Amino acid sequence: MKKVSVIVPTYKVEKYIAAAVQSVLEQTYQNFEVLIIDDESPDRSVEICQQLTDSRIRIIRQKNRGLAGARNTGIRHAQGEYLAFLDGDDVWLPEMLEKNVAHLDNSQDVGVSFNRSAFMDEAGNDLGTYTMPQLTDINVPCLLRGSPIGNGSAAVIRRDVFEAIRFEDNLYGTVEDFYFDDRFRQSEDIECWLRIAIQTSWKIEGIPDVMTLYRVNSGGLSANFVKQFESWEKVFEKTRSYAPELVAKWENMARAYQLRYLARSAVRMQAGEASVQLINRALSTYWRILLEEPKRTIFTWVSAYLLWLLPQSVYSQIDTFASKMRGSTQKRQILQEQSGQSV
After folding, report:
1. Which of 67, 68, 48, 69 is closest to 59 using CA atoms?
2. φ, ψ of residue 327 in degrees (nearest 5)
């Protein structure tokens, strides 16, 4: 039974961290260690973690380096053959590790196993909708259309994968090993997944199960759409430095899909004007997105304009109804895939 190192970056999550760590302790797969990385959090997050007495928990403190830096510190200290990351405001369902570990154990060419996520609000209430990513045959264009992994709390990864993309740098006064790129305070996930896809032969593959509860947090990094897009552009610049032909081939497509993703995020966070600007920019950047994914693109466009134009009370009623319908359809698809039926 392989050991899993669960790395929990901790910064300003005092309202959520206890539930996050408890969801690890309640896993059906019990051969793990929990590395809580205190990224110089100014609140009571670490104090709350210190009250947990499980011997498998280790608290590691560092000067603030951001999410990528906290993950890298965790990887350097990890003892497991498999590594998993749980953001301090997310939660795992009990079989998350068991099912992803089994997937890796049974698929020796898969380096990154991920699961679907369910969305919840800041209070932890189920929003009734799910990530519905492509699960197999994941290549560079697929990643550029929108990372199927969805969020940093949804994957279990072989340590060998990180060793394959490891690089050395001197960012803090001494040479260290890096896996995620500390220079990115946003978009660090997609930058890492792209390097795995381009620079290694490891497969990225998902399982149909919903095993992560992802918190839609209006105060989180993902709420700042302009900075998020600027960070994504910097990822593209880095990728161009070692894979210029791929970037040249997919650049406009990738930029449009990222803008549409941000438009969808803006709709979820009730930012009407921003969502309209983002979806219109996506369409002007690469209009073929309408042909490649018409349903999702049109739905995002309609949602953005309804949010922008309608009174909040009217939009909320429409959105509630649409979310219930979408969630029901997604749930049926998930159940069919879990049972091995065709959709």
Report:
1. 48
2. -65, -40
Q: Residue 144: name the closest of 183, 191, 206, 207 by CA.
A: 191
288 is written with which tokens? 């073929």
CB 237 within 8 A of CB 281: no
- What pLDDT, in 10s, does the model give residues 301-320? 999 999 999 999 999 999 98
In the three-class reduction of DSSP (H, G, I as helix; E, B as strand; rest coil), residue 10 is classed as strand
Which amino acid is it at 76? R
* Residue 40 CA: distances (Å) to CA of 43, 85, 200, 239, 316: 9, 18, 33, 30, 38
Q: Which long-range contacts (CB under 8 A, 24 or more apart) does 46-49 make?
A: 46/10, 48/14, 48/17, 48/18, 49/10, 49/17, 49/18, 49/21
Angle formed at CA 221 by CA 216 and CA 226, multiple of 5 degrees: 110
Low-confidence ranges of the chain (pLDDT < 50): 221, 341-343
Structure confidence at residue 138 (pLDDT) = 97
Complete DSSP assignment for 255-323: HHHHHHHHHHHHHHTT-HHHHHHHHHHHHHH-TTHHHHSHHHHHHHHHHHHHHHHS-HHHHHHHHHHHH
**Residue 105: per-residue pLDDT:** 98
Question: Domain spans of the chain?
Answer: 1-217
CA distances from residue 58 to 61, 78, 158, 272 in whole angstroms, order as listed: 10, 10, 21, 43
- Rounded Cα distance, 165 and 190, in Å: 14
Output the pLDDT for position 343: 38
Q: What's the pTM?
A: 0.92
Q: How much is the pLDDT for 223?
A: 57
Q: What CATH number was assigned to the domain covering residues 1-217?
A: 3.90.550.10
Question: Tell me, what's the pLDDT at 219?
Answer: 55
Alpha-carbon distance of 328 to 337, in angstroms, equals 14
CA distances from 198 to 10, 61, 164 (A): 30, 33, 11
CA distance 60 to 83: 16
pLDDT of residue 218: 61
List the beta bridge partners of residue 59. Answer: 36
